[in-house]
PIG-L family deacetylase
Amino acid sequence: MSAGAVFDPERERVERVLAFAAHPDDLDFGAAGTVASWTAAGVDVQYCLMTDGDAGGFDPAQRDRIVELRREEQLDAARRVGVERVHFLGHRDGFLQPDHTVMEQVVALIRRLRPDVVLAMHPERDWTRLQRSHPDHLACGEAVTRAVYPAVENPFAYPDLQARGLEAFKLRWLWLYAGPAERENHRVDITAHVDTKLEALRQHLSQHPDLGRMEDYVRRQLAEKAADGGLPEGRFAEAFHVVAVNAEDTIAGF
């Protein structure tokens, strides 16, 4: 368990969430059940996809339209969990870097939407399952983490944004997914939304030549996360590393 402020869903008021991912389908694997629970409660959740996923897929016949296809799949998947707005940054799959071009895009979007929670992939590598730690995943997490502190809240960072009316503000919570298990400090019981999560994942047909095997794996992982969190048998959970960016005891300043 990670030290730090604890997210209490009974006390915290969440009205808007901005969720980042490296590729189409990353959010559906990592957080779609939680997203469905938020939208069902009236929370405004928006997605931001950093790459177009142009290096994904298995069928050579789809190469000419893989970007268009994966965008369509992500939009369909997002709708299944109640997300209507998806932002696409359009970077090349496999080439994402946490540089200032990407960071400024992230800061601009966070300042524009001013969410209560920013959700992103974990910037730390998971050595127990290397597939979770695709270089783009790590770059997504690093870019967002660098952006939320200090740039989002520093009016002198990326001054062109301030000039455009995108004023600095203090983000409360950063939720990270797809990271090392030892970093996880918060679980969300998604049992009521597990079928919706799987329906979202089914929209990414270009990525799953064996849907049945994929679904069995996802259910098993969700059941293990629930058990690890002390939930009763038959429950499903998603796990996150939740970080309080600006807690009640945070000292002001950069």
Q: What stands out?
A: Helices lie at 26-30, 32-40, 66-80, 100-113, 135-148, 159-163, 194-202, 211-228. The beta strands are 16-21, 44-51, 85-91, 117-121, 173-177, 186-189, 237-244. Residues 122 and 178 are 6 Å apart (CA to CA). The chain has a mean pLDDT of 94.
